[in-house]
């Protein structure tokens, strides 16, 4: 019996267009899918607990071997809406920023932007595994990612969208995560896997309709904030980001 390929994916709503077509496509018979938050999926790929992961791109330098197997990614070209610094004070008046534990790429992007774009040297603290958002007040800001960012936008006075800041800083799009394997894979599997990914990306309205209880306009988020094509421009932007974090 053919050994199934272990796939790890992020359990946020932003991944649903990529996962939408996987379960009903024949490629599903060749894989085992598990879902978790981004940093956990990254750890599983590093530890060879999975063969493919939709992982934060910041972990690529930590992998002894990696292959970019997909035509798709979680990216943006301007405001992303779900990755942001939230605060009650302007950046110039903050003393500390709490960093969301769930995504390594977002944390590294925050550090790059503070150093190179906002040019601020602030105390950066790992928020830990608990929900830290009740600590965001006064001169303490917080980097919040994923679905929780939409809720936090209703509670904080200020929101600094990291996709917007990166675009202003570099003029480039940004790649938060993409499908990466830690070993060579069969070309037929890669072709079918990409085809399955494309199903939801081509039918964003159907994907959004599958989650009617979302607390924000999911279709607008998919269409206006996220960009799933892992094209040449995004690959160039990703390399720029990896070069930037290498000097942190």
What does this structure look like?
It contains nine helices and eleven strands. It is globular. With 248 residues, it is an alpha/beta fold. It folds into two domains: 5-75 and 174-245, D-Maltodextrin-Binding Protein, domain 2; 83-170, Periplasmic binding protein-like II (D-Maltodextrin-Binding Protein, domain 2, 3-Layer(aba) Sandwich), CATH 3.40.190. The strands form two sheets. The protein has a six-stranded mixed beta sheet, with helices on both faces.
- CATH C-level category of the largest domain: Alpha Beta
CATH architecture heading of the largest domain? 3-Layer(aba) Sandwich
The count of strands amounts to 11
Largest sheet: 6 strands, mixed
Count of runs of 4 or more consecutive helical residues: 9
- Structural class, from secondary structure content? alpha/beta
Number of domains: 2
Helix content: 25-40%
Give the distance, in angstroms, between the N- and C-terminal Cα atoms: 46 Å
Shape from CA axes? globular
Name the CATH homologous superfamily of the largest domain: Periplasmic binding protein-like II
Side by side, the strands of the main sheet go 2-1-3-10-4-11
Q: Can you write the helix and strand succession as a string?
A: EHEHEEEEHEEHEHEHHHEH
């Amino acid at each position: 019996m053919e050994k199934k390929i272990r796939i790890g994916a992020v359990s946020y709503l932003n991944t649903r267009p990529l996962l939408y077509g996987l379960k009903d496509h024949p490629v599903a018979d060749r894989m085992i899918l598990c879902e978790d938050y981004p940093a956990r999926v990254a750890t599983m790929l590093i530890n060879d607990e999975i063969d493919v992961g939709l992982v934060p791109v910041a972990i690529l330098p930590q992998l002894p071997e990696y292959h970019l197997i997909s035509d798709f990614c979680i990216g943006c070209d301007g405001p992303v809406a779900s990755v942001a610094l939230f605060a009650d004070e302007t950046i110039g008046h903050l003393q500390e920023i709490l960093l969301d534990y769930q995504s390594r790429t977002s944390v590294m992007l925050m550090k790059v932007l503070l150093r190179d774009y906002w040019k601020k040297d602030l105390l950066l603290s790992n928020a830990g595994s608990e929900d830290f958002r009740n600590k965001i007040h006064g001169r303490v800001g917080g980097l919040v990612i994923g679905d929780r960012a939409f809720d936090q936008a209703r509670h904080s006075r200020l929101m600094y969208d990291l996709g917007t800041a990166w675009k202003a800083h570099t003029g480039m799009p940004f790649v938060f995560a993409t499908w990466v394997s830690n070993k060579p894979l069969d070309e037929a599997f890669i072709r079918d896997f990409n085809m399955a990914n494309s199903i939801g990306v081509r039918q964003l309205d159907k994907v959004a309709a599958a989650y009617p209880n979302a607390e924000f306009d999911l279709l607008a988020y998919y269409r206006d904030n996220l960009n799933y094509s892992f094209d040449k421009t995004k690959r160039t932007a990703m390399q720029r980001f990896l070069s930037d974090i290498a000097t942190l």
